[in-house]
Amino acid sequence: MSKLRATLEWVNPSKLKNHPLNARIYGDVANGEFLDRVKAAGRIIQPLTVVGKGAEYPEYTIISGHRRMQAARKLKFGSIPINIDFDAKSKEDIDELVILSNDQREKSNDQKRKEAEVLIEVEQSRADRRMKAGRKSEPDGKKDTADTLPKSLVGSEPKGETLEVVGEKVG
User: Mapping DSSP to helix (H, G, I), strand (E, B) and coil, where does residue 10 land?
Assistant: First the structure.
């Protein structure tokens, strides 16, 4: 991904779609305490990050802010702030952005494992694409994958680069 290009807009929360990875990895639910804080503020303070409408996702798809969107819907807010990311275009970039946007949260070991599984899929997909194109790195110079998945996922020993990259990103 290149330097972030985003724009701030206000949209009705019903126009936003959850990214499927969020529920798969984090299972976020806007609990009572969170709802109370949003209600007391009377608005969503921090804009949600979404990817713009495109081929991969035909609607605004939430990258970061799923609980804020749930709270806004429950509290019947007419509009909420969103930052639209125009740089994340590929499925791999978008999936990676979902995980990297959640780096500040406390995570269970199970959530870290799920993040690692997704990042391994992302890195493998990038490696496959580079292999087909005859390149060793992404056009932006990223060096980010090995040739295989970990043994626990496919039964073969990983080469290392993928696990190092994923380890750095998951923490």
Answer: strand
Q: What is the pLDDT of residues 84-112, one digit of tens each?
A: 987 777 889 899 999 998 888 888 999 99
In the block, residue with structure tokens 């206000």? 10
Three-class secondary structure of residue 145 per DSSP: coil
Contact 120, 170 (CB under 8 A): no
Category of 31 on φ-ψ map: left (φ > 0), alpha (ψ -120 to 50) or beta: beta
**pTM attached to this predicted model:** 0.71
Separation CA 129–CA 50 (nearest Å): 25
What does the alpha-carbon distance between residue 113 and residue 153 come to, in Å, rounded to a whole number? 12
Burial profile 160-170: b = 16 or more Cβ within 10 angstroms, e = fewer: eebbebbeebb
